[in-house]
Amino acid sequence: MLTLVKNAQLFSPEPRGLCHLLIADQRIAAVIDASEAVNLGPLISTVDLEGRRVIPGLVDPLVHYIGGGGEGGFGNRTAELSLQDAYASGVTTLIGALGTDALTRTPANLIGKARELLAGGLTAYAYTGSYQLPPVTLTGSIASDILYIPEFIGVGEVAISDHRGSQPTTQELTRLASDARTAGLLAGKSGIVFIHTGDADSHLEPLREVAKHSAIPLSQFYPTHINRTADLFEDGLRFAREGGFIDFTTSTTPELLAGGEVPASEAVARALKARIDPSQISLSSDANASLPEFDEQHRFVGLKPGKLSSLFEVLGECINEHHITMEQALRCASTTAADILKLPRKGRLEEGADADFIVLAEGRWAIDQVWALGKSIYGSNP
User: Fold this and answer.
1) Catalytic residue check, 33
2) 298 marked ligand binding residue
3) 293 is an annotated ligand-binding site residue
4) Which of 235, 247, 286, 354 does the annotation list as catalytic?
5) Domain 58-340, architecture per CATH
6) Higher pLDDT, 191 or 72
7) Is pLDDT above 70 for 382?
8) How does pLDDT run across 253-310, given as a tens digit for each residue?
9) Which CATH fold topology does 2-55+349-379 show?
10) How far, CA to CA in Å, does 116 sit from each of 60, 112, 164, 210, 327?
11) Is 105 within any annotated ligand binding site?
């Protein structure tokens, strides 16, 4: 059955005005101006949104959906992401990753959870590998994981400038990026190398060294946590000016903020003011990861879990507190990540795109409904 979602104040992410969305086979078959007459007969289900704002479903490039943590021992492992929390977050496309723990959590766990999320109506991909090198894989190599496993679209979260990483050399990072890039080309995937950036003074320099001494471009890397310290943020702006991508983390804690983290919405506003193009800026939640606190000797103090809901919350802060346009903010929360990860049907609401969208509540920043792959999965129209 076809579904006609009528009278949506549409942001695609660019503002489209009042439109109808015709949904067929999980995708948007047509975007119809509301002024046009529509008569599609009795075999169509109709939902009238009465002028409420509609935005693309969010694309989150870093979700630890099988949990993370463990830096303080087994009692500090964070929980897996539940379907209910995912539905309520407005995130309709999730990219899963391992983190510090690639011993008790494995690539096989990631694939199993990705398929659970898919069975629940969401879209889920994953990165093979983890913080450490040599990378953990499912098939024996990064290249074959990306080439043969549908869910694997790149490698990550590989740690640089962090005491918990394996301190990779330029040669090791170059080989990793080369393998991922070639496999991505062969598989028609991004082959991206998603980078966890720690707070060491080297910041993003290891990635520059790869680009300087090889044919691998900076854009092969996708570094996150760029707002974790003031110095890293400034280095991230320089990295973007040099042609790279930067990702800001929306989950935070009072301790991280007190330690100098730049709030994610402020980071977006400052990056845009610095004339960094929105196509180079994204937001990720780091959901269900541990957000650990260490003392000056790098001894573990404590941790809190990341929240998937933080992505939608920060999107609202960008718009309502920093007066970033809806279009620019949505690009950072959805479209940019989709483009970097080569997911062309995600992060936009246009003919041929997947029917993933959020219906905003009337007159306030809140989620009224979430639709994923053409079906309502959360809210007032279940």
Assistant:
1) no
2) no
3) no
4) 286
5) Alpha-Beta Barrel (3.20)
6) 191
7) no
8) 988 898 899 999 999 999 999 999 999 999 999 999 888 676 777 677 777 889 999 9
9) Urease, subunit C; domain 1 (2.30.40)
10) 17, 6, 30, 37, 32
11) no
